């Protein structure tokens, strides 16, 4: 006799085609929402969530499968045959999957950004302590002592720590302006966190001093949407849309540059690259620690609250790691002979 699980699979297989397609669309959207929720928090990787949810391979294949063929086919959209070729190419490159997935990611970011922005305003010290705990624990679970046995790994680790420590120090003094060119650059770098498991895009935004600014803009977009629904055009809408558009273009450009470069480095020099990325997290702790020091008034916020927030952040990552130990993030090959 078939088991209950087997019967469930058979029932789903008997669903009409359009209902099965809708079910799959909803599932992809919800997985995108989960990825976006993780990507909103520094120290948690959207790529890791994609791996856990079983869509990482398809996600990477779809992203890397995008080419210039669609742009060429748009010249024949006025013909029925051209439209059919365009439709086939869209499905071959799995663009409907990416569209639905990123719709879920975007919904999560816009939803949670408001909560995080409000929390940063109300309790900046504990929030940065939470972020620090998340980042420190992420570095701890990804670290491997075998990196210390090779000179190239040690050099990469020192380089990663030094770069992050210096950049985080500059960011804590507000020396990276909140301008469109900086937003573009930050997005181009942060997109690596969505593509590579173990690396958080929000962490990279935090490192570059753009996290608070961009979560604030995303939070304002929800207010703009509510105002537009009432029939009024909100002030600041154009400016915020420009920031969002700049971030999107920067992320797209970054995927074809930064993310591909890091992926290539991981494939060619896995141990050294992974050592660099993890040491980047350690050096970046300079930023949340500086903000905790500057934002915490002991007379208003007890030190115990800050410590508990840091411990809570670390606990989230450690528990998460405990139940995802069996997943391979690519570091298993990091100690093979590198070319």
Describe the protein's architecture and organization.
This protein is mostly helical. 75% of the residues lie in helices and 0% in strands. It has 17 helices and no strands. The chain has helices at 4-13, 17-39, 46-52, 56-64, 69-73, 80-92, 95-122, 124-142, 151-172, 180-190, 192-195, 201-207, 211-229, 237-268, 270-284, 286-295, 303-322. α7 (95-122) packs across α13 (211-229), α8 packs antiparallel against α16 and α13 crosses α14. The radius of gyration is 22 Å and the shape is globular. Mean pLDDT is 82; it is low at 330-335.
The largest sheet is: none
Number of helices: 17
Cα Rg: 22 Å
Count of DSSP strands: 0
**What is the structural class?**
mainly alpha
Can you lay out the helices and strands and say which pair or pack?
Elements (H helix, E strand, L loop, with lengths): L3 H10 L3 H23 L6 H7 L3 H9 L4 H5 L6 H13 L2 H28 L1 H19 L8 H22 L7 H11 L1 H4 L5 H7 L3 H19 L7 H32 L1 H15 L1 H10 L7 H20 L17
Helix pairs in contact: 2-3, 2-7, 7-8, 7-13, 8-15, 8-16, 8-17, 9-15, 9-16, 10-12, 10-14, 13-14, 14-15
Short description:
The chain is mainly alpha-helical. The protein has helices at 4-13, 17-39, 46-52, 56-64, 69-73, 80-92, 95-122, 124-142, 151-172, 180-190, 192-195, 201-207, 211-229, 237-268, 270-284, 286-295, 303-322.
Highlighted features:
339 residues; 17 helices; 75% helix; globular
């Amino acid at each position: 006799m078939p088991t209950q699980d087997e019967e469930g699979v058979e029932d789903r297989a008997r669903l009409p085609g359009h209902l099965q397609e809708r079910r799959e669309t909803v599932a992809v959207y919800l997985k995108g929402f989960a990825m976006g929720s993780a990507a909103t928090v520094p120290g948690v990787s959207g790529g890791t969530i994609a791996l856990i949810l079983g869509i990482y391979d398809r996600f990477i294949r779809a992203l890397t499968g995008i080419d210039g063929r669609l742009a060429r086919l748009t010249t024949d959209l006025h013909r029925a045959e051209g439209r059919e070729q365009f439709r086939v190419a869209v499905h071959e490159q799995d663009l409907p999957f990416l569209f639905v997935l990123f719709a879920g990611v975007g919904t999560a970011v816009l939803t949670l950004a408001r909560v995080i922005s409000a929390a940063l305003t109300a309790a900046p010290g504990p929030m940065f302590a939470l972020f620090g705990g998340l980042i420190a624990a992420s570095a701890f679970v990804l670290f491997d002592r075998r990196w210390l046995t090779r000179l190239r790994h040690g050099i990469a680790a020192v380089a990663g720590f030094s770069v992050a420590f210096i950049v985080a120090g500059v960011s804590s003094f507000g020396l990276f302006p909140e301008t469109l060119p900086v937003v573009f650059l930050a997005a181009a770098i942060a997109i690596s966190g969505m593509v590579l498991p173990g690396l958080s895009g929000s962490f990279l935004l935090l490192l570059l001093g753009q996290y608070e600014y961009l979560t604030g803009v995303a939070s304002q977009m929800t207010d703009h949407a509510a105002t537009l629904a009432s029939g009024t055009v909100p002030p600041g809408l154009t400016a915020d849309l420009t920031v969002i558009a700049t971030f999107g273009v920067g992320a797209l450009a970054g995927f074809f540059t930064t993310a591909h470069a890091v992926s290539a480095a991981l494939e060619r020099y896995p141990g050294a690259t992974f050592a660099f990325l993890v040491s980047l997290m350690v050096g970046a702790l300079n930023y949340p620690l500086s903000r905790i020091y500057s934002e915490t008034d002991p007379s208003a916020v007890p030190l115990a609250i800050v410590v508990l927030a840091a411990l809570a952040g670390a606990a989230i990552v450690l528990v998460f790691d405990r139940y995802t130990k069996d997943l391979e993030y690519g570091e298993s090959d990091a100690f093979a002979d590198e070319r």
